Amino acid sequence: NKGKGYKELSYLMSSLRTPCPRPIIQTQKQILKAYGERNSMVPQLSGRLGNYLLPKMIDKFVDNFIGDEDVLLTFRENQIEVNTEALEEWIRTQDSNVVKQLMADDTYTVYEHKLNDYQYILKRLPKPSLDDNPQTVYSSPQAIAYQEKKINALFCPVVKEIKRRLLSVLRKDKIIYCDMTPETLEEIMNLRFPVKNYKQKVFRRVEIDFSKYDKSQSELALALEVEILIMLGFPVKLIPVWIHMHNISTLTNRDEGFKGKVQYQRKSGDAMTFLGNTVYLMISMATVLDVKEDFCLFSGDDSMVFTLKDRDLEDAMQYFASVFNLEAKLLEYKIPYFCSKFLLPSDLLGWILVPDVWKLMIKLGRSDLWDEEHAKEYRISLIDTTKSLGNELIYEDLDEAMIDRYKISSGLRYCYSAIYWLVRDENQYKKLY
């Protein structure tokens, strides 16, 4: 219907043919497909056992991850205050559209909103498939469920302080990868977990992939989250509100005439999305694997554990399912992989965080860039992402990682330098789109 208000979108076309998905056109059918295959088809793997083990799980979390329990005790007593200073600090980190939305909201208080009502939209660009035959599968679109900005304005500053408190009491061998650059993570790892120690003691790597991680989080996830929030000083008066928001939720897309309900499940546009996912993963790892003596990295549903223990990991995968309702798959590769990047242990350079070149090349074939200005912004981000590819000393280790993970017949070192210089040569980059 090219009537009033219709605007036909046009995109730049990439000169590379890669399996990078095309932008999603939001329709009612696409919304139903996303809801039906992602929100409705949730694994039901666990029983009620997890609820009885909840106190033990909290104790395990503290024992495995908290380095200063005395400070932790003070957090519970000193609850976070919701004040204008914290709100103003949060607003400064948002773009101008957020401020406009807050100004346009004429409600007196957040309680005038339906706190368990979430707007449900599709992500414009799905994640690229790294399989051998991506053309044979039509994956369901990924969706975002988010609340009104005034609700976020209340809870986001509180969650930000919760995160700061948690980071301040973590053990030194446990790292949550957030609010830091890749270079900062490299520095921390080289200081706390030198490559020399890693290679001399022959650490075993535990990399686990969780299927439908957000949607699989059930009543247990919410109960654990509430306990951790109270422990870190979340305002107790807001706890009933928080439970109401995350128990039975309504997902609505008014443009496409859609409304559906879900129980529990992690929402991708919630104030607690990243931290909640991270903490739930940490609790499950502490309960199932007991990682107190291990060096661990966490970020959302990504983790990497370096351990000297000899564990029965096959049984552990079953434990994740039966207690935490998580469908877990153990990945066994030679080179550590974390947050879509390789962690290369270099004898000369220490730990180096390098982008997954396979995924990077696929994304270069994207077809969702609006215009030359948008392509220019993407180039700026690529320059930062590919910084480590300028060092030829890592190419041998990176080749080993690529061959091991993707089973390619030979290395791609000619691609590493080509990509590095391509994004730094403006004229050559323009030929891409």
Folded structure, characterized:
The chain has about 425 residues and is of the alpha+beta class. The chain has two domains: about 30-335, no CATH class; about 365-430, no CATH class. Helices cover about 45% and strands about 15% of the residues. The chain has helices at about 30-40, 50, 55-65, 70-75, 85-90, 95-105, 150-170, 180-190, 195-200, 220-230, 240-245, 275-290, 315-325, 355-365, 370-385, 395-405, 415-420, 425-430, and strands at about 115-120, 145, 175, 205-210, 250-255, 260-265, 295-300, 300-305, 325-330, 335-340, 340-345, 350-355. The chain has a five-stranded mixed beta sheet with strand order 3-7-8-4-9, covered by helices on one side. Strands 2-1-5-6 form a four-stranded mixed beta sheet. Residues about 1-5 have low confidence and may be disordered.
